[in-house]
Amino acid sequence: MKQHTLLVLGSGAAGCTAAIYAARAGIKTTLIRGNQPGGQLTITTDVENYPGFAEAVQGPWLMEQMEAQAKHCGVEVVADHIMAADLTAKTLTGMNGTVYSADALIIATGASAKWLGLESEKTYNGKGVSACATCDGAFYRNRNVAVIGGGNSALEEALYLANIAKHVTLIHRRDSFRGEKVLQNRVLNHEKISVIWNSAVDEILGDPHPITGGVTGLRLKSTTDGTLSELPVHGVFIAIGHQPNTSLFKGQLDMDETGYLTRLPGTVLPTHMGQPLPGVYVAGDVADSIYRQAVTAAGMGCMAALDANRYLESL
Predict the structure, then answer these.
(1) Residues catalogued as catalytic
(2) Crossing angle, helix 13-24 and helix 294-314, to 10 degrees?
């Protein structure tokens, strides 16, 4: 067992900001990176709305800078994947059995991409199916690809892929997008992007050969009349939203119906049976199903660090 003053679980915008503020307050702080270091910004390309940058910056670069700043402030960064948590005792157990115990804990585990749930999606995962255009887009240079979804994630993926692929088809189960208006306009006016409305993926088609196989197309089903059609593509990018990374905390923290952690209004205090756990705080998308922005996550990280500092001073 390793004893710590403050543990920050998660290394996205919320976790890094919390660690920076805590370390600058003189708290011995340890940040556990998890299995997706940097969070969702590491699979985001152009970041245009984070304050302080007149020109767009790359998401992975921004997260590298946040972690570097945290280390510069004295934060110890640990690479581990937490398998179990006891929030009453404020202990976390890593994948190799290391137990991290702390006087205070900030949960900033973020959210992960959702999948369609098709068996063929699993069959061709990594062979034409992806949830990260930044990671895998280069494999489809000058080829036809499809993006599934209608929110900000889908619009951003389509715009990114349009710079690489021959053509991008955006497939949405409704008749209008849910993303930001500026992104909608860019997509609808882009010569290399077309949209198929009111359609859902019925099946991912392809060659299942383990070495030479891959995606060859999609079978689509109309959400209005049920008719089927096929679309030939080489790559499929799933961008239908995210789910909070909260499975560790089931039964220990209150959650809403979609799994996001609930907190006392106006605070970053998570609750169990309506009551806060002393010394435990939440920050970022793990407890935010509404805004889900890097800047709001960072703001919550700051709040959590300041609250943790007050708590630790009271001990």
Answers:
(1) 132, 135-136
(2) 40
